[in-house]
């Protein structure tokens, strides 16, 4: 079984993720994790929603769908909000890093990471972005 690592926000002065209450940080991370769990449950139940197989490394992604790539050396992503009032736009990405020089960019969006990613070649990542705040989880490649 692959090892899973979920990163947690760092406490630092002036950081939008900074919190005097550890429980506040846990709530934010758990919200993102719950969203990923819901997508995985839909997949397990055979629900055809919202998985988008991506092949282009420059892509505009819609919210509230799991955008899945295979192995990539870079991704240039544009986030396209739904514009629906009362709906939280969460952007979900899944990909495997194919190069030690991997880059992930978001066009004009200013994404703030809970913890800056340290991309590892061969690892698979899930990224969740909501309100321009991003977290990620990584899984080590299966050993043969």
Would you kindly provide a written description of the structure presented here, covering whatever features stand out?
The protein is of the alpha/beta class and 144 residues long. The protein has one domain. It is built from 1 helix and 10 strands, in the order βαβββββββββ. Strands 1, 2, 4, 6, 8, 9 and 10 form a 7-stranded mixed beta sheet that branches. β9 and β10 form a beta hairpin. The model has no long low-confidence stretch (mean pLDDT 81).
Could you give a short description of this structure?
With 144 residues, the protein is of the alpha/beta class. The protein has one helix and ten strands, in the order βαβββββββββ. It has one domain (4-139).
What kind of sheet is the major sheet?
Answer: 7 strands, mixed
Radius of gyration: 15 Å
User: How many strand units?
Assistant: 10
**Overall number of domains:** 1
Q: Strand content of the residues, in percent? A: 25-35%
Which geometry do the CA atoms define? globular
Compressed to H and E, one letter per element, the order equals: EHEEEEEEEEE
Number of helices: 1
Mean pLDDT over all positions: 81
The structure class reads alpha/beta
- Low-pLDDT runs of 5+ residues are none
- Fraction of residues in H or I helices: 10-25%
Termini Cα gap: 11 Å
